[in-house]
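Illustration 12: Glyoxalase.
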Amino acid sequence: MKIIVTSIFVEDQDKALEFYSETLGFVKKHDVPTGEFRWITLVSPEEQKGTELLLEPNNHPAAKEYQEKLFAEGIPVTMFGVADIHAEYKRLIDKGVKFTMEPTKMGDLTIAVFDDTCGNLIQIMQE
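Figure caption equivalent — predicted structure in token form:
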């Protein structure tokens, strides 16, 4: 068994698609109408056959509440690995991304947290 899709709730699918593809650099894999919303997934440019990230609408009250509470508590909804966290931090700062935590060493890891502009905090990590 392997993980093929993981999802994050987003307030606006179009805004999320733009942020995750144009700002973060993920590659759109699927964009399929599913009634009122769409099945939008992205993949890493380095692993285009790897795990897909689904941009899932937060239109259900439980999803919206879950997303809002995690954000309010400063809890990232997911984590992305990066090869050079300081270079990635600078690249994202230059694109206007707002960080809630600058790169911080935690044992053998260095992490940073940013706001995805779609209702989530995202953590990046370098081993």
